[in-house]
Amino acid sequence: MLVLTNLGVVSFDFSIAWQFIYPIFFVIIGMRWLFDYFRKRGGSWVFGSFFLIFGSLLLLDRFEIIYFTFWSVFKLWPLLIVYFGFMLIRAKPNIVIEYNNKDSSGSKKTKSYSNSFFSVGDHEFNEPNWKVTPINLRTMAGDFYFDFSKAFIPEKEIPVTINCLAGDVNILMPSNVEFRVEATLNAGEIVVLDQTTDGINRSLSFETEGYEDAERKIDFQIHLRAGAIRIDHV
């Protein structure tokens, strides 16, 4: 169009057209980044959605539907809170548990557990020969069941941390494995072998007799707002 205007073929007011052109660039870039993100080809859903929204608002202004200029971009700051919230909800690093027994292809079996303070669900560690590794689970609500009598436990100190707003924690420990536990509970019951406490704002510290000298041992840190914590010997 610029070439044709310079040649006198058409009349083209670039200053007016530019007001429509650059918002379309933002829309196209935003759509491309979103497309690549959802097709797993890179891209960014944050920047893609931001440019799409920004460009669309500029176009609505050009068609006199709303008032929105380039420098009105600062009015979009609440989107930062929305993006931050989505990142918190979507942030779910996995706890990957390996099993010593192999499947038909000869490879070790694995299972993943979501680990996000905004997730809800049960976690069971009770399949034969699951390998005990450092575990740090943070969930909003759910039940936890650990059967260490079926596990492969390396000869070292292994930390297991559980943080949950509401749920039950049930742990079965073989009698030949030493362990220590620091448990806190705002409301509910804590039972560790023959020690029990219940009520409001309860805590319990326990350590088996041979914990300090043992090579193979587990250190539990369990913190619940409401629910029950129970550790028994098998």
From TrEMBL:
<dbReference type="InterPro" id="IPR024425">
    <property type="entry name" value="LiaF-like_C"/>
</dbReference>
<keyword id="KW-1133">Transmembrane helix</keyword>
<dbReference type="GO" id="GO:0016020">
    <property type="term" value="C:membrane"/>
</dbReference>
<keyword id="KW-0472">Membrane</keyword>
<dbReference type="InterPro" id="IPR047793">
    <property type="entry name" value="LiaF_C"/>
</dbReference>
<dbReference type="InterPro" id="IPR054331">
    <property type="entry name" value="LiaF_TM"/>
</dbReference>
<dbReference type="InterPro" id="IPR016975">
    <property type="entry name" value="Cell_wall_LiaF"/>
</dbReference>
<feature type="transmembrane region" description="Helical">
    <location>
        <begin position="42"/>
        <end position="60"/>
    </location>
</feature>
<protein>
    <recommendedName>
        <fullName>Cell wall-active antibiotics response LiaF-like C-terminal domain-containing protein</fullName>
    </recommendedName>
</protein>
<keyword id="KW-0812">Transmembrane</keyword>
<dbReference type="Pfam" id="PF22570">
    <property type="entry name" value="LiaF-TM"/>
</dbReference>
<feature type="transmembrane region" description="Helical">
    <location>
        <begin position="16"/>
        <end position="35"/>
    </location>
</feature>
<feature type="domain" description="Cell wall-active antibiotics response LiaF-like C-terminal">
    <location>
        <begin position="120"/>
        <end position="231"/>
    </location>
</feature>
<dbReference type="Pfam" id="PF09922">
    <property type="entry name" value="LiaF-like_C"/>
</dbReference>
<feature type="transmembrane region" description="Helical">
    <location>
        <begin position="66"/>
        <end position="89"/>
    </location>
</feature>
<feature type="domain" description="LiaF transmembrane">
    <location>
        <begin position="2"/>
        <end position="92"/>
    </location>
</feature>
